[in-house]
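Database export, one record per block. Field names are fixed; values are copied verbatim from the stored entry.
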Amino acid sequence: MIPVEPLDLPLRPLVLTSVDATLAPPSGEPTPPPVPPLAGRVLLGGPHAVPITPEFAAEDRELRLFVSQEAARAVYHLVRLTLNFPDRPVTPRLHRVDAAFELTAQDGAEAPVAWSMTPSEVRDARQRVRHVALGPRLAFLGVEVELGEWSRTVTEQTGEPFLQAQRAQTPRPGWRFTRTRAMPLTGDQSLAMVVRAPAGVTSTLGLEIRATTRSRPLGLRRYREVPGPLTLPPRTLS
């Protein structure tokens, strides 16, 4: 196994704009003001990517062999990012946040896919904590450690889903955070995935952050922001 250590990624506040259409007012009534943006409620660190080379996997013979055997067909990247939800008494409250990715390749090549993702699901704040490592065939593995270590994954499937990985093994992976009665949307959330891209072709990782707020009497409101894309170079593995 190869330990996957957390990165201290600089956080930048996002300004998410409303995506809800404003209904035309009845005849003779004033037009309602536009919905203000959602600023400073979601902070983003990354995404940051490093190629998984035989040198990267040098400490694990089986993993190094897998990367070398795949070199003619594919290049793998370890992608990490952090989402932060500041704990402030601000309304409307965040109800749901999605980190939605789109993976594409140049020159009409086969689209990259999210080979593996972590955490896969979190349902309960009392779940045990695991340290993340890359195992054979670049799957994420968990090893139990003391509380406070990075990162958190599910070991007991109880309670409402707070975090769910979505669409693994596809070009459109993502994570969804949903406020629950036991777990509000607060603090840092560390995410990681391994991307498998075609060898010899530049790939692009696009990211869209979506947020939904819930309040009375406004109900649900939706917002989005599209940070700049991340380029995954066609590094040759040897």
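Remark 1: DSSP finds one helix and 15 strands in the chain.
Remark 2: Residues 143-156 have pLDDT under 50 and may be disordered.
End of record.
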